[in-house]
Amino acid sequence: MAILGPIIKAALNIHEFFTHVDDHKTAQEKVLKKLLEKAADTAFGKEYDFNSILKEDDLHEAFDNAVPFHDYNSMDEKWWSRIKNGEENVTWPGMPGYMARSSGTTGKKSKMIPVTDDMLDAISSAGTRQVSALTNFELDAEVFEKEALALGSSTDLDDVDGFKVGEISGIAASNIPEFLESKYRPGQEIARIEDWDERVQKIAELSGEWDIAMISGIPSWLELMLKKVMDYHKVDSIHEVWPSLSVYTTGGVAFEPYRKSFEKLFTKPVTIVDTYLASEGFIACQQRPETDAMQLITDGGIYFEFVPFKPEYILEDGSLRQDVTTLDISQVEKDVDYVLIISTVSGAWRYLIGDTIAFTDVNHAEIKITGRTKFFLNVVGSQLSVLKMETALNELQEELNTTFKEFTVYARKIDGEFYHKWFLETTTDTPEEDLAASLDEKLQEANKNYSVARSKALKGVKVTKVPEGFFNAWNAQQKKMGGQVKMAKVLSEDKQDEWEEFVKEKLG
C-alpha cells in the first residue's frame, strides 16, 4: 500500500494552494519593482537611471519610455560581452556562474546567455509550481512517490573563461536539489554523457531497474528514446517496462503532431502537460486540466511586456521598432498575436525572446506560442504563423488518418513565381500533388492574409514527402542532436540552398 505518495501529494496540494497566483497584474508590478530595485546600482541600471524610474507612479510606462528594446546581438555587444570579459555588476548584481548556450533554430552560431543564481532559483521554483499543479489533474497518489526521467541536454558543462556553459536543461538538471536526486533519472552520471546515442543506450540498459511515473523532454527526441527502450526490452509498449508511467511533460515544440505516434507507445492513459522553458528562463507551464494552454509564471522573476504582432512594427531582421509602445499584462486581449518581451533576474532587459504568443484566457494569463518573429512566413503578404501551419496540418492528418510530426517550409521563386515549399515527414501514400492542394485549401481557411496572398502574388504550394528520421539526419549533419534541438519550422534563407542539396542527396 502506498503511504508516501498521499503524503507527498497532500504537501504539493498545500504548496499549490499557497503559491497559486490569481492577481497577475499585481504579481507583475511587484516583479518589475524588485527587478529595478535590485539592478539599480548595476552599469545597466545607472545607464538608464532605474532610481528615477522607481520614483514614478506608473512603473511600466516609465520603464517603457526609458529603456530601449534589445535583441541578443544588441544586449551581447554592449553589455553581456563585458560580463564575459570578467566585469561584475553589469546587467545584474555580481557575476553569473553559468552561461546558457542556446541551441535555437536561427542564427549562424550559438548564443551565450547569462544564467544567475537568482534565475536558477526562479527555474527551480517554477518547476516546483509545475509539479504542484499536477495535483489539479486526476492522478493516483502513488505517482508522486515514483521516479521521474528528464531527457534534456548533457549536464557535463564546459568550463569557458570561468563560466559553466551548457544548454539550459543541462544547467537546470545539474542543479537539482540533493533531496530530489534519489528520484531523478537517468541520474547525474548518465546525464553527463555528451554523445546522444551513447546516453540513450545507457538509459535503455538501465531502464528495467527504474519505476518511472513521469517523463519530460522534447517530443521528437523523447519518442526516439522510448522506442530505444522498447526495442531493448523487445516489447510493444513502454508500459511493459514502466507500468507506472502516467505523466509526460512536453515542451519546445507543439505536441499535437506527435500525439498519434505517442499513443501507439502507450497502453495506459498518460496525462500530457505542456511547458515553456527557454534559455532565458522558465516562462510558463500548464496549470489546469481543462486546457492545454500554459499559464505565464507572473511572480517568478520575469517581467513580461507585449507588442501586437503587426508588419509595420517589425524590422527585416525580426526585431522591433524602438518607437513602439508595449502593453502590460492588464492590457492584453484574447486571440491577438503578441511579440513577447522579457526582463529577468539574469539581467536581460526588454529582451525580444523571438517568440510570438496569443492569450487563450486573459484572466488566467494562459497563452499558446504562435510562432517566431523571424518565422512568420510573410513573403508576398501571407503572414502565416507557425500555429496556423500546425492547425492546417493537424486537420489534414485527421482527414488522411496519418501523421506529420515534423515539417519545414520556406518561400522560393520558381520560374519567376513565388511558391511555398513544404517538406513533410510522413508515411502517407497520398501523392504530393494532392497533399499540396489539400494543405493549400486548409491554409486558406485558417488564415485570411494567406488567402489574399494566394489570390495575388503567391502562386501555390509544393510538397515533398520525406521519410521518418529525415529531419534528425539533417540536424546530425548540422551537428545538432538531442536535448533542446528543434527543427526550424520556417527555414532561414541562408540555409535553403544547403537544405535543397541535402534533400537532393538523400532522396535523389
Automatic annotation (TrEMBL):
Span of domain GH3 middle: 297-364
Domain GH3 C-terminal, chain residue ranges per copy: 390-492
GO CC terms in record: cytoplasm
Alphabetized Pfam families for the sequence: GH3, GH3_C, GH3_M
GO MF term list: acid-amino acid ligase activity
Superkingdom as given in the UniProt entry: Bacteria
Descriptive protein name: GH3 auxin-responsive promoter
